Structure formats: C-alpha cells, structure tokens
Amino acid sequence: MIQLQGTVLNGSNNTFEIECDDGDGNPLIRPCSFKSKRLKLDTKYYNPLAPGDRVEIEIEDSESRKGLITALVPRRNEFVRWNVKGRAPQLLAANLDYVILVTTPEEPPFRPKFIDRELAQAEHQNLTPIILVNKYDLPESQNPEFQRRLQIWEDIGYKVLRVSAKSGEGIPELAELVTGKLSALVGQSGIGKSSLVNVLDSTCVLKTGSLSQKYGKGTHTTTKGSLMHIHLNESLVNGLPNVYASIIDTPGVRRFCLDSIAAADLALYFREFRNFLGKCRFGMSCSHENEPGCAIQDAVESGTISGERFESWRTIKEEIETGSWDD
C-alpha cells in the first residue's frame, strides 16, 4: 500500500474526486471513498468534506486509478453556513485565502443583509472576505443609495470590487487578486459566479443560469461545490502565460444562515463594533438595545457606526434568537 495526500475537488456522500500529490507536476485525479465508516471526521457537519480539504489517502500501487480516504488533514480554515433543511452546519469550502462574497445591484435584487450575514460568518472563522459586485454594468449600480451602502463597507475596511462579467469592467483587478490563491465564490443563485469563472478563463465553459421570472431569484446551476484550477486569460495578466488561480464555485444559496454564533456574541463579528465593546456603562452585559450609556448606540448617534449596519446587526441578532431566517 502507498500512503499519500491530496486535495478534495468535489464530491458527496462517499465518493470524492481527489487531486493527488503523486503526479509530478501534473496531479492525478482519483475517485476516492472512505476506508471505514468509523473514519474520524467531525460528524456534526451536514457534509463530511468540502472542496479545498486536504486528505490522506491509500492506494494499492502507483498505477491505481482509485483510492481510499484514511484521514483528514487539519484544516487551516473553513467557511460554513447553517443548512436549515439538513438541520446541521454545511461546509462550503476549506483552506481558503479569500472568500469572495458576490452580490449585484439588481437581477437578483441587492440584499445587503445577506452580505452582512456572510461577513459575520467570515469574521467568526477568521477568513479574509472580499465583496464583489457583479453586473456593475446595470443602471441600478449608479443608484446613490446602492453606492452609499458599498461605501459603508469600504469605510469599515472591506475591499469592494466593482465588476461586470458582461462588459469586462474590473475583471483584471479580480484576476490580480486571485492569482496564485485559493478563493471561494459565494452568493445567491443567479448572481453570476459561473459567468465570472468563464470570463477569467475562456477555456472554462461552466453552465450559467437565468433568473426565475416569478420570484426574481436565480435557478440553481451549480449543484455542488467544485474546486477548479483556472488558466487566467493572458489579456488579464499583462500578457503573461501560464498564470493560474484556484477557484471554488459554491452552489448558489437563497438563504444564508449563520452557524455557531450566539446572539450575544454577534457584535464581536461586526468589526466596527469591536472598539466599543466593554465600554458601555454596563460593560459586556450591555445588550446595546435600550440601556443608558451604551457606547455602541452613542457611536450610531454620532455617525461613527452607520445606522444601516446597526439595524442589520439588530435584525440578524433577532434571527439567531428566534431561529427564523429571512430569505
């Protein structure tokens, strides 16, 4: 038997495509299953492995086309959401350099609270989030209220990319960001994640979907997450050949629910709140709702914390408390 390691590209249940480390510069991809049902994986998750995971595998010899997964290499990080239907946390991606949160000004409609939930989850898991506005060619992108919301995120330190897969605007900046990195594209269905991959690498032809006319929401075209090594178009990287990026295209979600964040702790993951925590009259026991001498409410009144983000925090906190999540 030969022991080696590899990277999970995709899979579900008990069959995964593993990019193995024995390919001498041209990694071999083997379908692999678990060696034992008693394999020591964290059983709290809806799915045991995610794209980007590193695993140890066992093969009979170097010519083997299949393998057995024997162990999970400890994750550097992970991005998770609570799967309401499965009643368990769902792994979306692992070992990331960036989690790229894709939104649009319209088609599907702009949902800033959806992004605020994703940002809180990324902060909780010590990930580096990037907000990417796709379809920036749409007229709605110039709406002053939309622009002001993007500016709020930028003012608190988040990087916001303004991009159009259709017109090409912002695509070179996106290519520069993802070069040599492992990034996950996360967002609603129909938001254009697959289109972004297609324009970064014209040799990729990922299926793209249209919006549901009845609900204005995307249809699911990516049914399971998949890690791809894309060959960036030379026109996007100053004519340099053989420039690659690793992208995980995650399934579109209509509802992003937080996992493992208590309502009382949510303020920790709104980064502009942190400097004020513990400075309220009632210290860390302050709920930041109606107490006198609340440092966070004072910051909202002075404009140091935006009213929109405060209301978003308050709504998400209530969702955690009630277990009722807005779409």
Question: What does the secondary structure layout of this molecule look like, with pairings?
Answer:
Layout: E1 2-12, E2 15-20, E3 28-34, E4 54-59, E5 67-72, E6 78-83, E7 88-94, E8 98-103, H1 112-124, E9 129-133, H2 144-155, E10 159-162, H3 171-178, E11 182-186, H4 193-200, E12 226-231, E13 244-249, H5 295-302, H6 307-322
Parallel strand pairs: 3-5, 8-9, 8-11, 9-10, 11-13
Antiparallel strand pairs: 1-2, 1-4, 2-3, 4-5, 6-7, 12-13
Main attributes of the structure:
327 residues; alpha/beta; Rossmann fold; Ribonucleotide Reductase Protein R1, domain 1; six-stranded mixed sheet; five-stranded mixed barrel; 6 helices; 25% strand; globular; rRNA binding; cytoplasm
Number of β-strand runs: 13
- Find the CATH superfamily of the largest domain: P-loop containing nucleotide triphosphate hydrolases
Quote the beta fraction.
15-25%
Shape: globular
Helix-strand topology string: EEEEEEEEHEHEHEHEEHH
If classified by CATH, what would the architecture of the largest domain be?
A: 3-Layer(aba) Sandwich
Computed Rg? 21 Å
Quick one: biggest sheet? Answer: 6 strands, mixed
Distance between the termini: 49 Å
CATH class of the largest domain: Alpha Beta
Instruction: Find the structural class using helix and strand composition.
Output: alpha/beta
Instruction: Tell me the number of structural domains.
Output: 3
Tell me the CATH topology of the largest domain.
Rossmann fold
What is the overall number of helices? 6
Low-pLDDT residue intervals, each spanning 5 or more residues:
209-222
